[in-house]
Design a protein that fits this description.
heterodimer; A: 487 residues; alpha+beta; Uridine Diphospho-n-acetylenolpyruvylglucosamine Reductase, domain 3; Alpha-Beta Plaits; GMP Synthetase, Chain A, domain 3; 3 domains; 7-stranded antiparallel beta sheet; 6-stranded antiparallel beta sheet; 17 helices; B: 490 residues; 4 domains; 5-stranded antiparallel beta sheet; 4-stranded mixed beta sheet; 16 helices; binds flavin-adenine dinucleotide
């Protein structure tokens, strides 16, 4: 095992811990991933320190597990895969380098959370294309590296959005900057001439930012990221359309995205919408009773020029579509108002975190799919729940169109009591069973975590082989988060 | 040099005798290069077999789609993809099309228009492969470069078939990323310097809504076509502004307010080239437009999905332009001109007129990046063209550059070119010198680095040594060194 003093020499005293209670925090999370205790938790403060840590890890063949967000963690990706690992906790790297209104871009270090960045963006007249209700401690960089789905699919042109550029150290310790940031010269040289690291292209032939996303820290460590921002609307008008018939809502949603009429746009079932607003179980039941099974939420935005005209035009056009499909649109669904939901989703989740509020834990099963398969997959999930004894009406559902409507993120949230063995086991079994069956029904698990990752990669040997060849180049000593993804 | 009989026979066994050739009389018709052989596979399995054969004999190969960019090494096996020309699927609900390499833009667009859909069309035009990456007039609303690819079927340089993203796991084309890190990182497609190692045999590309007619009712005869009327809820205008700064302000507001389907920073010389039916006409129109314009400008097309949408977009467009002191060029508002500009600029049929017609050749510096930054550089590059114009080396375009917004102005393309007579050695030398100096200035002043052609070591070093990674990646997939090498290796 690595000598503590070597780590102290890099990051300073107080920034290395091997105290039991600190190690314990990183040994497990809410997922079903095996417990493994790290050897140290190290908190670098600068990119230079990160590089030295990677060099030391290579020299001593010590595994590093990069972590940017604060607890609670949900997917097992930050629980070490091997003993003797060092947690590289980047949550203290909190510099916001700039928020640039004219070029719609912000640059941050990995420890910057949504909670911290949103007000700075708002001040400049910008906003982030964010995931649904991230917890307060969620790192913006972490979310984007994980390719979490975003609420405004119309502004997600490419799966890699809203990533603009990134600065990183590959697993072999070499520095790299992706996209426009690669050069010429240093970031400072570029700033002097007015460059703000916005364009994701290149450098040269490869687009290496795509390799560090979805990698769960297995390729290297990102020390800053520039993020594409959107303009803050002058006016907004959110709506609900609700139905028993999911297909009707999917139909409307696909047209809203295709015609670029809406910003935030997604579907929740009554379980999830109630869970988002409820303060406790009783409240949850009270809200849920008033809700129809499926609720489509969408927001129409008006920007600097004639915002009323834009909104009015789209309200009229959507009314025509609703008539064709046979749907109603309204400002509320049961006890929940569309304005209330809009307010909630434009910031991180209040404490306690909504997924933990009901029963203390949630196991999330999520995959990408297309319109054609979704209803069948959802029906199958309900059948499997029934079979395993998890009430299908307790299943949370979240459907998020991605990449301008070319696909959908479909997520089931299985709320359970982590202190009940029966409930935990049931949810674990359901999760395993569902992942396997849904894969056979066209569900694409593009972000595989935990044990399920093995089955997922087994389905595509050619891609797995390609990824392993690539990994060898960037992390030849296999020090970056071993045991994760397919490495 | 022709292939040995043995290898020729093996390749012939794969594609059939009709679809292979190494006849020395025919080879020069392919890019004037001394190729080993030309083979024409019909499907992925044949491509795979060809690539495996090349590996066995350590023979270099290159796949070619419509062949617009090619300059190819001697003795290679040239894989001509023209038989792989099928549109496999147009998925309306999920907004993507799955195509083979030789489907050209004009065909796919005609099919998509019928369904109220379209896609990013490379500026090179409607005769180019629709599958390969590129950028063009419609980038403002349809993105560009490598950002429109979803899943890709890829025959690796060793002849393995990799199906990226959802395709590899579920047989669906809608997503090219994952599981885990995205191999799109190396499948960046095939416009040099971005040569993908191996061969793309099918790809899904993103589709976008098309608010225009299912078909243009084109009338007249070449070179003078017209539209009987401007399509409903569409409008095209050319606006000129008192300064580059004002133009840029308008451009950025139009992007932020999501107004334009196309925002193309044509200079008036390019507008003239688009409208004119011959060189004499071109010169006359250019002079007229030059007098009419206030300063730098751009061409826009707006398209409403409904009357309401159109009314809003038109109102916002006019207000934004007014605030930036822009003015519409009245002579281009003539519905005949407006109509044909809409058709030409959406079907993208004008690039040859803009580039080759006046001089016979052109030399260009294109850059996809942060638009305001590249405009700043282009002003200087335009000024540097003026002495060449004065000396009569290049066609007079007023020292103009051009470019366009990408993804509603989030990023952009800027390009500047010189049109010249390739038979005029002095002109050629002057243009080469200009090109070298301006490329170097972009690097020295930290605007951007050009990565086409020969890239010097100091540029590579100052661009995070990107070449080193690319070489390592290609070696990992091409141990026999048989695939075309792009980027830093060109
Ligand atoms: C006048 C002119 C204007 C242009 N304007 C633009 C423009 O505005 N925007 C733009 O993006 N480009 C432009 N170009 C560049 C280029 O011509 C286009 O991008 C063109 O569409 C490339 O497609 P192609 O099918 O003709 O390419 P090809 O020449 O067939 O191929 C290009 C490269 O890709 C490789 N390749 C081809 N097919 C495959 C395959 N199936 N698998 C793997 N590799 C393959 C080839 O080996 C070659 O290296 C322009 C070119 C010209 C001559």
């Amino acid at each position: 095992m690595i000598d503590k003093q070597k780590l102290v020499k890099i990051v300073g005293t107080g920034m290395v811990s091997d105290r039991e209670e600190d190690l314990e925090k990183y040994s497990s999370d809410i997922s079903f991933v095996n417990r493994v205790r790290p050897a140290y938790v190290v908190k670098p403060g600068t990119a230079g320190e990160v590089q030295k840590l990677i060099d030391l890890a290579n020299a001593t063949k010590t595994p590093l597990v990069p972590v940017s967000s604060g607890a609670p963690h949900f997917k097992g990706d930050t629980v070490p895969g091997n003993g003797g690992s060092i947690i590289v906790d980047l949550s203290g790297m909190k510099k916001v380098e700039f928020v640039d209104r004219a070029r719609r871009v912000a640059m941050v270090e990995p420890g910057v959370t949504f909670e911290e960045l949103i007000p700075l963006c708002t001040k400049e007249g910008l906003r982030l294309n964010m995931p649904l209700l991230p917890r307060k401690s969620k790192s913006v960089t972490g979310s984007i590296l994980e390719r979490e789905p975003v609420l405004m699919p119309g502004y997600q042109w490419d799966m890699s959005d809203p990533l603009a550029c990134a600065g990183l150290y590959f697993g072999n310790g070499e520095e790299f900057r992706t996209g426009q940031a690669a050069g010429p010269g240093t970031l400072k040289d570029q700033w002097k001439v007015g460059a703000v690291q916005k364009a994701p292209y290149g450098p040269g032939t490869a687009s290496l930012h795509r390799l560090i996303q979805g990698a769960q820290g297995t390729m290297g460590i990102v020390t800053w990221m520039s993020i594409r921002c959107e303009v803050l609307p002058k006016m907004q008008e959110p709506f609900f359309s609700a139905s028993h018939d999911l297909d009707q809502l999917l139909d409307l949603m696909s047209w809203l995205i295709r015609l670029r009429m809406v910003t935030e746009c997604f579907i929740l079932n009554n379980t999830n919408l109630a869970a988002i607003f409820a303060t406790d179980m009783e409240d949850y039941q009270r809200i849920k009773e008033t809700l129809p099974p499926y609720i489509l939420f969408y927001n129409i935005a008006g920007y600097d020029y004639f915002p009323e005209d834009r909104i009015a035009a789209y309200i009229k056009d959507i009314a025509v579509m609703n008539q064709r499909i046979g749907l109603d649109t309204g400002k509320s669904a049961g006890l929940i108002s569309a304005d209330g939901l809009l307010k909630k989703i434009q910031k991180p989740c209040d404490e306690p975190y909504w997924k933990l509020c009901l029963k203390g834990a949630s196991q999330d099963i999520f995959f990408l799919t297309i319109y054609d398969h979704m209803e069948r997959q959802i029906a199958a999930m309900k059948e499997m729940s029934e079979e395993i004894g998890y009430s299908p009406t307790d299943l949370g559902l979240y459907i998020q169109p991605i990449v301008q409507g070319t696909g959908y993120h479909c997520e089931f949230n299985l709320f359970y009591d982590p202190y009940s063995y029966t409930e935990s086991d049931r949810v674990k079994d359901l999760s395993n069973m569902a992942t396997k069956s849904l894969m056979n029904m066209g569900a694409f698990f593009s972000r595989p975590y935990g044990d399920e990752a093995n089955w997922i990669f087994n389905r595509d040997a050619a891609t797995t082989d390609a990824l392993r060849r690539i990994k060898k180049i960037f992390d030849p000593n296999h020090v970056m988060n071993p045991g994760k993804v397919c490495f | 040099m022709a292939l040995s009989k043995e290898i020729y026979r093996e390749l012939e066994d794969i594609v059939g005798e009709e679809f292979i050739c190494s006849d020395p009389a025919i080879m020069p018709s392919y890019h004037g290069s001394d190729l080993g052989a030309v083979v024409l596979p019909e499907n992925t399995v044949q491509v795979q077999a060809i690539v495996k054969t090349c590996n066995r004999y350590k023979l270099q190969f290159s796949a070619v789609a419509t062949g617009w960019t090619g300059s190819f090494k001697k003795d290679i096996v040239y894989i001509d993809m023209r038989r792989m020309n099928r549109i496999i699927e147009i998925n309306e609900k999920n907004m993507y099309a799955v195509i083979e390499p030789y489907v050209i833009t004009a065909e796919l667009q005609a099919e998509c228009f019928k369904k109220g859909l379209h896609f990013n069309v490379k500026g090179a035009g409607s005769n180019c492969s629709a599958m390969l990456r590129g950028h063009g007039h419609l980038d403002q609303s349809t993105s560009g470069d490598d950002r429109n690819h979803l899943a890709i079927e890829w025959v690796t340089p060793e002849g393995e078939i990799v199906r990226s993203g959802a395709l590899g796991s579920t047989d669906e084309w809608f997503c090219g990323d994952g599981p885990g890190p995205s191999i799109r990182a190396i499948l960046t497609s095939a416009v040099p310097p971005g040569v993908t190692p191996g061969v793309f045999t099918k790809a899904a590309i993103k589709l976008y809504h098309w608010a225009g007619p299912p078909k243009y009712d084109i009338q007249g005869l070449s070179p003078k076509y017209t539209l009987p009327e401007v399509p409903k809820n569409m409008m095209a205008r050319y606006y000129s502004f008192p300064s580059v700064e004002k133009m840029w302000q308008a451009e950025i507001r139009l992007g932020e307010n999501e107004i334009c389907m196309e925002l193309m920073g044509f200079n008036v010389s390019m507008v003239a080239a688009n409208i004119a039916t011959c060189n004499e006409d071109d010169e006359r129109i250019f002079k007229r437009l030059n007098k009419e314009k206030k300063g730098p400008g751009f061409f826009v097309i707006i398209a409403g999905n409904s009357d309401n949408d159109f009314a809003f977009k038109k109102k916002a467009l006019e207000q934004i332009v007014r605030e930036a002191e822009g003015e519409s060029m009245k002579s281009l508002e003539d519905p005949e001109t407006e109509g044909i500009l809409i058709a030409q600029c959406t079907r993208v049929t004008a690039s040859i007129r803009e580039t080759f017609r006046a001089g016979g050749a052109f030399s260009s510096i294109p850059i996809m990046s942060q638009r305001d930054l590249t405009i700043k550089w282009a002003i200087g590059a335009g000024e540097a063209k003026l002495p060449l114009i004065k000396a009569g080396h290049i066609v007079d375009d007023g020292g103009a550059f051009f470019g366009w917004g990408v993804e509603q102005g989030h990023v952009g393309k800027t390009e500047i070119f010189c049109k010249f007579d390739p038979a005029n050695e002095k002109a050629k030398a002057a243009v080469e010198k200009w090109s070298k100096e301006q490329g170097r200035r972009a690097f020295d002043e930290s605007y951007f680095a050009l990565m086409m052609g020969e890239v010097s070591d100091d540029i590579k070093a100052n661009m995070c040594h990107y070449d080193k990674w690319w070489i390592a990646l290609t070696r990992a997939f091409d141990p026999n060194d048989v695939a075309p090498q792009g980027g830093p290796l060109v």
